[in-house]
Write a structure and sequence with these properties.
The chain is α/β, with parallel strands linked by helices. It folds into 2 domains: 3-84, Methyltransferase, Methionine Synthase (B12-binding Domains), Chain A, domain 1, CATH 1.10.1240.10; 94-223, Cobalamin-binding domain (Rossmann fold, 3-Layer(aba) Sandwich). Helices cover 49% and strands 10% of the residues. The protein is built from 9 helices and 5 strands, in the order ααααβαβαβαβαβα. The chain has helices at residues 8-18, 21-33, 39-58, 64-81, 103-118, 132-141, 157-170, 191-194, 204-213, and strands at 94-98, 122-127, 146-150, 177-181, 199-201. The chain has a 5-stranded parallel beta sheet with strand order 2-1-3-4-5, with helices on both faces. Helix 1 crosses helix 3 (39-58), helix 3 (39-58) runs antiparallel to helix 4 (64-81) and helix 4 (64-81) runs parallel beside helix 5 (103-118). Residues 226-238 have a biased composition (Basic residues). This is B12 binding domain protein.
Length: 238
């Protein structure tokens, strides 16, 4: 984004937590007019505000009202940006995308879905709160190429670990690639490798990049580690 727009983050965040819908939508309209690629707005405005909300909410520095204002308004703003995203041709690749069952994780998953769809993938957004049995069944039903778990809260890490272990054990969609990112994976070094994910990403933009760049990478059992230092980004191969 142009340098004069860096102050927009603070202004936009204040609009979010105060529930000022008119000002928030107006600022995003201005930002859309000032960039060639709307992905810049996601990278430099939406995602930083979403991470700030995560931080303040974890530290109990937001009122419940401010949290509700911000999450509802962010959902609307993401919908405002989605039609502006440049689209490429379909890849004929199917992704089932799940996330943690909190509002901010759902928003992160929505961002990831919008960017992946714009990049040509067919995305089935399950969101949070879906049982592993149903996810496994659906992966087979749609013949998915990838499972993305983007935005996981600490309480649901064991469920994610069990899901990945089960998929490795029973061989549903044997060529399935498993990608994780966001949420607790951004705060716990080595967690993605430990639970056997094939790729990992810090944010929705990087998520698209690593899937595009490493479509064939799969984690073998010997590469699942506990305590190994996390690689700087998900795009690094083992």
């Amino acid at each position: 984004m142009p340098s004069e727009r860096h102050i927009s983050i603070e202004r936009f965040f204040s609009f979010l937590i105060s529930g000022d819908r008119r000002q928030a939508h107006s600022l995003v309209d201005e930002a859309l007019e000032g960039v060639n690629d709307p992905v810049e707005i996601i990278a430099n405005l939406i995602w930083p505000c979403l991470e700030q909300l995560h931080k303040l909410n974890r530290e109990d520095q937001l009122t419940n009202l401010a949290y509700h204002y911000a999450t509802r308004l962010l959902h609307q703003v993401i919908d405002q940006i989605q039609p502006k995203l440049p689209s490429r041709g379909r890849r004929n690749q199917r992704i089932l995308l799940t996330c943690g069952d909190e509002l901010l994780e759902e928003l992160a998953a929505q961002l990831a879905t919008d960017l992946l769809e714009a990049d040509g993938y067919d995305v089935f957004l399950a969101g949070g709160g879906v049982a592993n049995d149903e996810i496994v069944e659906e992966l087979g039903s749609i013949n998915a190429n990838r499972l993305v778990v983007f935005g996981v809260i600490p309480a649901t890490v064991p469920q994610t670990r069990q899901l990945i272990d089960r998929l490795h054990d029973i061989g549903v969609c044997p060529n399935l690639q498993i990608i994780v990112g966001g949420g607790v994976f951004n705060r716990a070094e080595g967690l993605a490798e430990e639970i056997g994910a094939d790729l990992w990403a810090l944010d929705p933009i990087e998520l698209v990049e690593v899937i595009d760049e490493e479509p064939e990478r799969r984690m073998i059992p010997e590469q699942r580690t506990v305590g190994r230092r996390r690689k700087p980004t998900g795009r690094n191969a083992a």
